[in-house]
Sequence to fold (176 residues):
Amino acid sequence: MSKDYLPHKIDPFKSAVHETQVHGHLKIHDMQRLNSSLHSTEGEVEVNMVFAIDEQKICTIRGHVKTNVMLQCQRCMESFEYAIMSDFVAGVVKDEQEATDLPEGYTPVVASEDGMLVIQDMIEDELIVNLPVVPMHDPDKCKIKLPFEAGSSEQVETNNPFNVISILRSKEKKNS
Fold:
């Protein structure tokens, strides 16, 4: 089964008038800004988008992205697979001023001067926003085990620098 790849650019305003539905794939290795956060650039992103004009006469894109990316755990430094599945609603605007006027709930997407939208850039932004701030395995899957985790019944005794004070006080009481 062959995969459909998305066009590089699309006219969101014309597509919204015709209520165009777009389905296809983008290659992760083509997304340079995203790649700097990844351990591997292999794989693809599945994208579904529906262009429409809403009741407020706003050009909208309702979309869904789905992919698995390889990240590097910041605890053990091993790679792990991270699933991204995200739905978004974007309002397409012509400039920054229109972006500030969008109602709450719409992510602003600014079309280029020629009215076109670079699909890959919009999807790349959506993926970047969905990355974890600090990528880490689930604690039970990580090679590095923390000495004490919340909810654990076992506590590890640590050297407390204030233990010296309690020792000195106990000696002081004995000498009194």
The beta strands are 9-10, 21-27, 44-53, 59-72, 79-93, 107-110, 117-118. The radius of gyration is 26 Å.
